[in-house]
Design a protein that fits this description.
Number of domains: 1
Oligomer: single chain
Shape: globular
CATH superfamily: Aldolase class I
Low-confidence stretches: none
Radius of gyration: 16 Å
Length: 234
């Protein structure tokens, strides 16, 4: 892994996972004050009526809290809000003016094609992600997603699946150990455990909410997750 990999001024290093506080419009104040987090994720798709013209100001206010910002406009098919791709592209474009990183789905091909060069030109970190909401595919399929993301220009690949059984968590663990520059996590019954086990194995980031959960299931609050990470992983 490149020693230069970072989100803003926060280096991303396996074995030293960074905690991401995630939230939408209703959590702006909590995100700005999320002292237990290393990074914040602004889930623009969770706004009631997100507008490109107001987004740079929102991101600036969050960055003023001292933590770099990931801007995400998640697709509905992967657990996000109901926004058409043209509007998502405009929101991402506006966020790039101020955000330190963007997170775009691998499957959103047109957006990836447009946004990766724009992010590169501004020196932003690119996270390309895949969210499998109902199952955990086999290791080979997950590693194929990591390879695809790398070819598309990802700095970091994020893989989230639904884990019902410990076998699913073992699959994610094997993927984490076999890949580099990855974030892995689970939704579902084993989601909370995944937020500790997978970062300990090398996942670069682990996510928590600061109000309303931003994942369908399996997400811990920042006040729950941060002490566990600091105590058990460091």
């Amino acid at each position: 892994m490149s020693s230069q990999l970072a989100i803003g001024g926060v280096a991303l290093v396996p074995g030293a996972p960074r905690i991401v506080a995630a939230g939408g419009e209703g959590e702006l104040d909590a995100l700005a004050a999320a002292e237990q987090a290393d990074v914040v994720e602004l889930r623009v798709d969770l706004f009631r009526d997100p507008r490109p013209e107001s987004l740079p100001g929102v991101v600036r206010e969050l960055r003023a809290g001292g933590r770099p910002v990931i801007a995400t406009v998640r697709a509905a098919a992967e657990g996000g809000g109901a926004l058409e791709d043209g509007r998502r592209l405009a929101l991402y474009g506006a966020a790039l003016a101020e955000a330190d990183a963007i997170d775009v789905e691998i499957a959103s091909t047109a957006l990836v094609t447009a946004l990766v060069p724009a992010a590169r030109a501004l020196g932003r970190t690119v996270i390309l992600s895949a969210h499998v909401l109902d199952t955990t595919p086999p290791v080979a399929a997950l590693l194929a997603l990591v390879d695809r993301a790398s070819r598309l220009g990802a700095d970091v690949t994020k893989i989230a699946t639904h884990a019902r059984e410990h076998a699913d968590l073992r699959t994610l663990l094997a993927t984490t150990l076999a890949a580099s520059d990855v974030v892995t996590l689970a939704m579902g019954p084993l989601g909370p455990l995944s937020r500790i086990v997978l970062p300990a194995a090398g996942s670069l980031l682990t996510y928590a909410h600061v109000g309303r959960p931003t994942a369908p299931s399996g997400q811990l609050s920042l006040s729950e997750l941060a002490p566990l990470v600091r105590r058990l992983i460091g």
